[in-house]
Amino acid sequence: MSKALVVPRRIAFWHRKGGTGKTSLAIGCAVRLAGGSAPDTYAEGRLPARGARVLLLDTDPQGTAAAWGERFADRFGIAARADSGLALWRDWAERANCFDAVLVDCPPTVSTEVMEILAGVDRLLVPTRPAWPDVWALESVADLVADLHRQGARLAASVVFNQVGGEALAPFAAAIADLGLDLFPDAIPREDAWPALFGGGEPPDSLAPLVGQLVRSSGNPNDLNRSARSCREDR
Questions:
Q1: Left if phi > 0, otherwise alpha if psi is -120 to 50, otherwise beta: which for 63?
Q2: pLDDT (tens digit, 9 = 90+) per residue, 118-151?
Q3: Signed CA dihedral, 182, 128, 76, 107: sign only
Q4: Bridge partners, 125 (sequence order)
């Protein structure tokens, strides 16, 4: 049986500390999942030629992802919207079913809205630069994730080294392991393609391993795009 590739329904990008590159990573992953200039292969196979139908929700008051969306989302076939984050999953419950994946750019805060968002996601990515302030801030991230798990949340959380420029990562990785957090094995390097993303450019190919982890094989070739297809049929 041929295998389709399925992305988790809901993916959040969050760190309680600002400046870690979460918005860039969220946009880059959205573009890759939507099929924007995707490399030939990902970790577990190929994305369909059209890619996934992606909804990018910007709940950060800075509004950077939404501003990017106003200018460039259509180019990559992505729906991008701003949202306060309050009761996010209640408000988007029906409309989100029209997409294969919903990516949420969260504000760098610990708030009721953020807790509710994270409680409803399948995957949490925590972009972290190879700098001690970023790693120290992960202590409260680990506590929050543990609290959510005790409350029954299903999210799988991973720290992703981001904006790496040749720093020795071993000391930071050891500190992250001591916190009990999962660390994605492939670091995201600092590249010129990242600033160019905000001029309508495409994310670098170095993002492929991470996107490959967001894509998993399924024995049912109808899994990907099923919800999007049913939305079109209901119109």
A1: left
A2: 999 999 999 999 999 999 999 999 999 999 999 9
A3: positive
A4: 13, 158
